[in-house]
Amino acid sequence: MVPESPAPPSTLGNGEVQGSGKPSDESRVPGLVLVFSSGVPLCVALPLDKSSLELGREDPRLGSLDPRMSRRHTRVVFDGQHFVTTDLGSHNGSAVDGEVVTPQQPCVTRHLLRTADSLFLPVRDIRPFLSGSVLVNDGHVTGMAQKQILHEVENAGRFGNPLHITGESGAGKEYLAKMYHRSGRFHDGRFVPVNCAAIPQGLAERLLFGARRGSYSGAVEDSIGYIEAAARGTLFLDEIADLDLTTQAKLLRVLETKELVPLGAWSSRTVDFLLCSATNKDLRVQVANGSFRQDLYFRIGRPAVTLPPLRKRPEEIPWIISNVAKSVDERLLVHATLVEKCLLRPWPGNVRELVVEVRTAAQTALSSGCARVEASHLSVSAGTAFAEPKPESSETSSATHLNREELAERARISDALRQHHGNVSAAARALGLHRTQFKRLMDRHQLDPQRF
User: Fold this and answer.
1) Using an 8 Å Cβ cutoff, are 32 and 17 in contact?
2) What does the pLDDT look like over 9-60, one tens digit per residue?
């Protein structure tokens, strides 16, 4: 029996299947998805034959991808509940969920398997990955979970229905709104994005509906609002739940009558547009607590799609990393340890956070003269969950600060050893330290280079 250990925050929980629906256990096809190998993002589905799969160069699907993979590298078995990995004495080792494993010792794999320079996701139902691959369109990465959602979004656009998108901040809701616009009857018109949360209090009516000269102090000429700007186009109201109730009522009237009355005007004008809205809040809860109008909800709340957070779309992460690195410098390579670390972090800021942090890591690599972006170039806090700060007494604050520094130092040393496969001299050079000094640090943190 393989002992279980606490699962760390990750981009993929317990080998969950991404995509719509919940297939029965009998119909599921467990397997692995190869998402990165020797610097290249991939999406190769590998079903487990009779719940078992052996990885190595003997597999024609893998042999030419990773020259550092052994002929018989690792065996993975699915027992109906867990993916169990056994390294077969490979030359360059295996790691499970970020930790190097001991050869011939079975280990439960919850989130990620690394064999040499290749990364695999354990997936309980691999069928969605058998019918296609990750798509990259205009720099946007679309994985399996987004494909079905895109189909629903495009249908809403074709039928001219209002569309509401829910999802965490930074997950990519505006991209779905643009796909809705491109599918709609007004695809040749303007796409007008509006961040309702950024509109100053008291200005929403003026900015949305426009104003006539003299309608308020300082109005020296007529001004069109966002709605008029989106005529025969698409208006995207992001964070629509932040609109005040008065503005919500006027928006509802425009949607129902297709008539717009600017601030200070005596007559209306006809306006036709498609509406896409989004929020990271539950509109039904907002209706229940009185902060969102029920009649407006019924007008815009269906159809609705929910965009999963990035941690539920792990197959997209290697492609995003590669795109960002190339945008910084076309010659930059991406090392497996960087992708591995990113796949094992929850990314509360989703795609927006990942892009910023990887760009910073790539710039750090360039400034230090490195030809590839490695895990050591990624910020220690990048992609990690936020935690409430605990109050500290003056007696403990200095000790806490010291402990944090020690943890960061240990992480840097471990990363260097992992990247250089336990080669102490190479790891020391990477950190700019003398070999003797590096060995003292290893002893202080009880790190055995053989583990790496």
Assistant:
1) no
2) 445 444 443 333 455 566 889 999 999 999 999 999 999 977 899 999 888 8
Same structural domain for residues 156 and 286? yes
Is residue 287 located within the same domain as residue 436?
A: no
Spatial separation of the C-alpha atoms in residues 223 and 138, rounded to whole Å? 33
Domain assignment of residue 6, yes or no: no
What domain range is 401 assigned to?
311-386+396-451
Does residue 324 sit in the same domain as residue 236? no
Going 16 to 19 to 24 to 29, the CA torsion angle's sign is: negative
| Alpha helical stretches, state H, 27-106 | none
CB 162 within 8 A of CB 53: no
Using DSSP's 3-state secondary structure scheme, residue 252 falls into: helix
Indicate the range of 53-67, 88-102, 144-158 predicted with least confidence: 53-67
CA–CA distance, 66 with 74 (Å, rounded to integer)? 14
Instruction: Say if residue 315 is in the same domain as residue 206.
Output: no
Q: What is the pTM of this model?
A: 0.78
Q: How far apart are CA 3 and CA 241, in angstroms?
A: 46
Q: Are strands 274-279 and 163-166 parallel, antiparallel or unpaired?
A: parallel
Neighbours of 253 (CB within 10 A): 15
